[in-house]
Specification:
Blueprint (H helix, E strand, L loop, with lengths): L1 E6 L2 E4 L4 E9 L6 E7 L6 E6 L5 E3 L7 E6 L4 E6 L8 E8 L17 E2 L3 E6 L1
Parallel strand pairs: 2-11
Antiparallel strand pairs: 1-3, 3-8, 4-5, 4-9, 5-6, 7-8, 9-10, 9-11
């Protein structure tokens, strides 16, 4: 079992930046595919980025070039650097984990592929 706790959300103006963190607790000895999802009010949860055990990353088209996912295994922490934020980036950002060393890009289209979720952190971007 693994526990995920997000932090770092907040309110920023368009064009600003934020760094989200996700601390990973519990059974961290296994290999995980890690990802960030987000959910805007009234919309489905959508994948933002994923990273596998070998640090290979995948990004959704909506954030590609503006977002960087990374992991510090020494700190058991997953990060999401958000740059050039837009109002449409507003939503609750969730950290997710799947017990698998590989991440396939299509996992970002299917939240059900992830078995462990954090409680989320709110990101609000004003125009």
């Amino acid at each position: 079992q693994v526990q995920l706790v997000e932090s770092g959300g907040g309110s920023v103006q368009a064009g600003g930046s934020l760094t989200l963190s996700c601390t990973i607790g519990g059974d961290t000895d296994n290999w995980y595919c890690l990802a960030w999802f987000r959910q805007a009010p009234g919309k489905n949860r959508e994948g933002v980025a994923s990273i596998d055990w070998d640090a290979d990353a995948a990004y959704s088209d909506s954030v590609k070039g503006r977002v960087t996912i990374s992991e510090d295994k020494t700190k058991n922490t997953l990060y999401l650097q958000l740059n050039r934020l837009k109002p449409e980036d507003t939503g609750i950002y969730y950290c997710a984990a799947r017990l698998e060393s590989s991440c396939y890009s299509w996992y970002l289209d299917e939240p059900a592929q992830f078995h462990h979720w954090g409680q989320g952190t709110q990101v609000t971007v004003s125009s």
